[in-house]
Amino acid sequence: MQVLTPLVEFHNSRNMKKTQALEAFGALSQETRLDVFRRLVREFPDPMAAGDLAKELDVPPSTLSTHLGILSRAGLVKAERQGRTILYAADTEGTRALLTFLIKDCCRGQPEICKPLFDAATNVCC
Hints:
This is Metalloregulator ArsR/SmtB family transcription factor. This protein has helices at about 20-30, 30-45, 50-55, 60-75, 90-105, 110-125; strands at about 1-5, 50, 75-80, 85-90.
């Protein structure tokens, strides 16, 4: 099994740069890519084959490939080759970095104020 990784650069502190956040938001600002990302998040931790995604979302395979490449370069999706099949999954580290970028300066350093925001996010997915 060969893991294919996107070229995403983070500071040594693992903080996302503004340009990387903008790339991720740009990737998610297109309807099909948002649908793909949300579908992979729902399936996580299991990956999905590109063909299955294309059928489920009614997207031509070549178009889906382009969208997956954009999401991968944005650090939101990772790919893994198994034989002749490429499996895709949401990249939780990239997603976490994006969410952290959004809220890291929240509430002027008073985490108790942000608790409802964190609770809402974790109640939805965890």
